[in-house]
């Protein structure tokens, strides 16, 4: 009986040592990935913040026009939006994060249709403030993907609370 317990303990010890060594390697790999990601993020920040260039697409050039709709048959209120692309780039993705102040929750106004310079987007919608009051929503951030002349994607993120913008150019996904 004692021999079988000792053998069982030995087997369990070997298994635990084998499992824990894999975890250490995973942690090391994860740390290396995090360092690489942090380096990439800092390079992206350098591109957009240290570069004294103007923002490629200013948020005023693409702000949404929002209309709060009447409640539907079950009382749900929606917002309907469009935007006009007043930039020189085709916009392929548009996402506005909106705070609904009356319920202290966020919603997103998203559209993934390509809108060429000078065009107005199709209508897109999301939940709206239950009060139907235009003062009960606030646009917190805006994320844009546009296409450059070279065919690459241009990613722009605006944070209206911080009054900051970051942007970088990537491959053509």
Short structural summary:
28% of the residues lie in helices and 32% in strands.
Distance between the termini: 64 Å
The topology string of helices and strands comes to HEEEEEEEE
State the major sheet: 5 strands, antiparallel
Going by helix content, strand content and strand pairing, the class is alpha+beta
Number of strands: 8
**Low confidence ranges:** 21-25, 42-51
Strand order within the widest beta sheet: 4-3-6-7-8
Question: Beta-strand percentage?
Answer: 25-35%
The helix content, as a percent range, equals 25-40%
Structure description:
Helices cover 28% and strands 32% of the residues. The chain has one helix and eight strands. It has one helix spanning 2-50; strands at residues 65-68, 78-82, 91-100, 105-111, 124-127, 137-147, 153-159, 164-170. The protein has a five-stranded antiparallel sheet. 16% of the residues are buried.
Features:
single chain, 173 residues, five-stranded antiparallel β-sheet, 1 helix, three-stranded antiparallel β-sheet, 32% strand, alpha+beta, extended, 28% helix
